[in-house]
Amino acid sequence: MNQVVDQESTENRWLPVIAGIAIQLCLGTVYIWGVFQPAVVKLFDWSQATVALTFSLVLGIFVCGSTIGGMLQDKFSPKPVIIGGGIILGIGVFLASFTTAERPWWLWLTYGVIGGFGMGTTYPTIIACCQKWFPDKRGLITGLIVSALVLGG
């Protein structure tokens, strides 16, 4: 699909990409769970398996959130979906701070499920939004956005 893009619409098209890269850098923290895992095991005296389940939930719910985020952005536009996903992620991380040694399920629910869903809804929405601004360079833009997610870790 090769579309002609007029000069007026391309002047500020890098702004969504810069914002998308910044957001993806923040979302990339999901990939550094291994850095936190030993400290969580030691702090709560949990098994590795108990703590690792959190990361498994994040990734599983991330996939579900990506599907839902894609559908929502088609219905409502990218901006409210990205903002909503960020808020959901923030709530999940904040609530995870109330985890206690007696309640590992709280970490699974807050960071794993809520945080994973927030990350998931945001990730594909940013990619799709930025690709719309660059119909002539979809591959480049996708590469930049996905690289930012990985570099965030």
Which structural traits does this protein have?
153 residues; single chain; Growth Hormone, Chain: A; mainly alpha
Give a verbal description of the structure.
This protein has seven helices and no strands. The protein starts with 6 loop residues before the first helix and ends with a helix. It is mainly α and 153 residues long. It has helices spanning 7-10, 14-27, 33-44, 48-76, 78-96, 104-133, 138-152. It has a single domain, classed as MFS general substrate transporter like domains (Growth Hormone, Chain: A), CATH 1.20.1250. Helix 3 crosses helix 4 (48-76). 80% of the residues lie in helices and 0% in strands.
Compute the CA-based radius of gyration. Answer: 17 Å
Strand content: under 5%
CATH class: Mainly Alpha
The number of domains: 1
The description of the largest β-sheet is: none
Sum up the overall morphology in one term.
elongated
CATH architecture: Up-down Bundle
- CATH topology name, in short, is Growth Hormone, Chain: A
Low-confidence runs of at least 5 consecutive residues: none
What is the H level of CATH, i.e. the homologous superfamily?
A: MFS general substrate transporter like domains
Helix-strand pattern, N to C?
HHHHHHH
Gap between N and C termini: 33 Å
Number of helices: 7
The count of β-strands is 0
Query: Could you estimate the helical fraction of the residues in percent?
Result: over 70%
